[in-house]
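REQUEST ID: PR-0412
SUBMITTED BY: lab tech R.K.
PRIORITY: routine
TASK: structure prediction, single protein chain
INPUT:
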Amino acid sequence: MSQVRERILEVASNLFYKKGIQAVGVDAIIAQAEVARMSFYRHFKSKEGLVLAFLEQRDEQIRSWFETEVIRLAPEPMDRPLAVFDALALRFATQDYRGCAFINTMAEIPNREDLVHQASAKHKALFQDYLARLLRDAGFSDEYAPDLLQLFDGAVVSAVREGSAEPAFRAKRLAALLLGPPARTSVKRRTPVASR
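STATUS: complete
OUTPUT:
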């Protein structure tokens, strides 16, 4: 990736997440990235192309982050389905947290036929696949993956409304009830320590 393309994408990603996709125009991105208009369009044919690149990059970053954090928080595979919610609590605790970029995007662009909406929905499908793998590795049925994703997404929306990590812990308690006996799915009510 060229430095110019990387700078444009970084600026756009920050603006899209903070202000929303439709509220941010190409002119604002060009100005903040300090690039020529011609350079912008050399790297991105349209704003839609930039939005799709933003979503693709964020998808990779988010899923990689959860993979790493869940393993760090839960060395034993049987504990990882619930550790997803501990990792989620870490995200809620960040100062600039304003929800899930993919949920926000689907809310802004509700047309399911739109490529941007589809890219956001694809992230959710891939994350559900990740949850299914965690469940299988822990000895649970992967049929619970959609339920865990629903608890996950509900916690995200509640965290934006409440401004706290508590929704992650409530979702974790519900997931523990869903998955099985307390002996196997003990819930610790504390915010895990973020990795440095």
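NOTES: Residues 182-196 have pLDDT under 50 and may be disordered.
REVIEWED BY: pending
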